[in-house]
């Protein structure tokens, strides 16, 4: 973070990090994870007296690390001022790389969005040099659109669809993108940005984004991304759990049918091979070509291909074959999740990824399977729903990773 401080001093309008005490860093951390809080709301959970809390906040405001951001609704007395990390601290860059999509965003330290762009890619066909060169170009374009400069970038968060060695910032044997194995994303971006770069699995970032949205109020929950593949971000005791080698949450390769189709991992019957986006499309093509779904057949005739969203549209129009496909995929995902729920006992299961576009029938099938197959105690207070952040979850999580790790580098770190 010393290097970050030196960078920000060189840029007009960016407040330098100054010598900050451990107590002040605790308040900054609380301000990040509890946006829109008052002085009292920040200080009380940390165990500070009212006078000490006010003094710490006043000092951070004087240093340009916190700022007031309007008043809260009155509770009968003088309305309290809300606080946030100072916008002058710098800018965050968030990069969310999916198997078939790329999203880049510029955010302020409080994760308010300044600019964002999304486009289609295919990491299975395009190597890291091509994808990251495009991401770097978008960073430059969005920074310029936001009126920012490279020297103002405080930290960069990157999500990728595969297991990550978090300390090294590298993918490790990613099954869907073998050309990325051990590729250093940090080194690629180092020449252009002196800010630190943090890399994590894309579903871990979705979980981190939801944790930030929830203000860390839920300590144990999972986020499941269902798109080209199936992965799971695990929040345990208020922190993202990555496992011994970065592969925690790779639930897509849990078998739901030992006699099922062969998965790209080499095993048979993985839930990813039988219920992810490509599997839904494969079942839709079979139904269309067999004459079982007039609507899917008509869409295929016009466009020449089908997508999971087409199955959702057909289902909402009452197409029986589309309904059967979504129910089958949902039951298989629920079967896998029941094992996870019995093992981990989360309070919430949040579903994200492209599959959320298919509508409520898939979610209903997942819920039914989870509740039928899980132990009663595990589901007594369990909620299964679509992730509230939706398509924004990846970039919000990338921004949360960037800011949280920037604070952690100051010595705060839980």
Order of helices and strands: HHHHEEEEEHEEEHEHEEEHHHHHEHHEH
Proportion of strand residues: 15-25%
Quaternary structure annotation: single chain
Q: Average pLDDT across residues? A: 91
Helix content: 40-55%
Strand tally is 14
Rg calc = 23 Å
Q: Which geometry do the CA atoms define?
A: globular
* N-end to C-end Cα span: 17 Å
The description of the largest β-sheet is: 5 strands, mixed
How would you write the strand order of the largest sheet? 5-4-3-6-9
**How many distinct helices?**
15
Descriptive notes:
- With 414 residues, this protein is an alpha/beta fold.
- The protein is globular, with a radius of gyration of 23 Å.
- It is built from 15 helices and 14 strands.
- The protein has a five-stranded mixed sheet, sandwiched between helices. Strands 12-11-10-13-14 form a five-stranded mixed sheet, sandwiched between helices. Strands 1-2 form a two-stranded antiparallel sheet.
- Mean pLDDT is 91; it is low at 1-16.
- Strand 4 (101-107) and strand 5 form a beta hairpin.
- The protein is 41% helix and 18% strand.
- The chain has helices spanning 2-9, 22-33, 39-43, 50-62, 128-145, 185-190, 202-213, 271-275, 277-289, 294-303, 308-316, 320-344, 360-373, 376-379, 393-408; strands spanning 66-71, 81-85, 91-97, 101-107, 113-120, 153-160, 164-165, 170-171, 197-201, 221-226, 230-236, 239-241, 348-352, 383-386.
- Keywords: Kinase, Transferase.
- InterPro entries: ATPase_NBD (IPR043129), ROK (IPR000600), ROK_cs (IPR049874), WH-like_DNA-bd_sf (IPR036388).
- Pfam families: ROK (PF00480).
- GO terms for molecular function: kinase activity.
């Amino acid at each position: 973070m010393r290097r970050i401080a030196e960078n920000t001093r060189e840029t007009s309008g960016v407040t330098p990090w100054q010598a900050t005490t451990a107590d002040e860093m605790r308040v900054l951390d609380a301000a990040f994870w509890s946006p829109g809080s008052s002085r009292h709301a920040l200080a009380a959970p940390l165990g500070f007296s009212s006078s000490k809390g006010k003094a710490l906040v006043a000092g951070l405001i004087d240093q340009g690390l916190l700022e007031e951001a309007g008043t809260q609704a009155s509770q009968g007395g003088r309305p309290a001022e809300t606080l946030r990390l100072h916008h002058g601290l710098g800018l965050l860059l968030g990069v969310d790389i999916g198997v078939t999509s790329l999203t880049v965003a510029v955010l302020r330290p409080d994760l308010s969005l300044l600019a964002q762009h999304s486009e289609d890619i295919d990491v299975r066909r395009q190597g890291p040099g091509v994808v990251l060169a495009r991401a770097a170009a978008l960073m430059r374009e969005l920074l310029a659109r936001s009126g920012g400069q490279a020297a103002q970038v405080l930290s960069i968060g990157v999500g990728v669809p595969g297991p990550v060695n978090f300390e090294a910032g590298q993918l490790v044997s990613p099954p869907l993108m073998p050309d990325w194995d051990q590729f250093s994303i940090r080194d690629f971006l180092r020449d252009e940005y002196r800010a630190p770069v943090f890399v994590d699995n894309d579903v871990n970032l979705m979980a981190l984004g939801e944790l930030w949205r929830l203000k860390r109020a839920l300590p144990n929950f999972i986020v499941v991304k269902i798109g080209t593949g199936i992965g799971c971000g695990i929040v345990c005791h208020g922190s993202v759990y990555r496992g011994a080698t970065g592969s925690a949450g790779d639930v897509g390769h849990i078998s739901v049918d030992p006699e099922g189709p062969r998965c790209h991992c080499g095993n048979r019957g993985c839930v990813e091979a039988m219920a992810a986006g490509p599997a839904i499309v494969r079942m839709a093509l079979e139904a269309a070509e067999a004459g079982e779904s007039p609507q899917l057949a008509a869409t295929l005739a016009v466009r020449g291909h089908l997508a999971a969203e087409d199955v959702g549209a057909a289902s909402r129009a009452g197409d029986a074959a589309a309904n059967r496909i979504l129910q089958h995929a949902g039951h298989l995902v629920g079967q896998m999740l029941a094992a996870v729920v019995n093992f981990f006992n989360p309070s919430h299961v949040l579903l994200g990824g492209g599959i959320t576009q298919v509508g409520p029938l898939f979610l209903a099938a997942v819920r039914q399977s989870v509740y039928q197959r899980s132990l009663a105690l595990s589901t007594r207070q369990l909620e299964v729903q679509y992730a509230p952040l939706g398509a924004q979850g990846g970039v919000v999580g990338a921004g949360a990773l960037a800011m949280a790790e920037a604070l952690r580098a100051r010595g705060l770190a839980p």
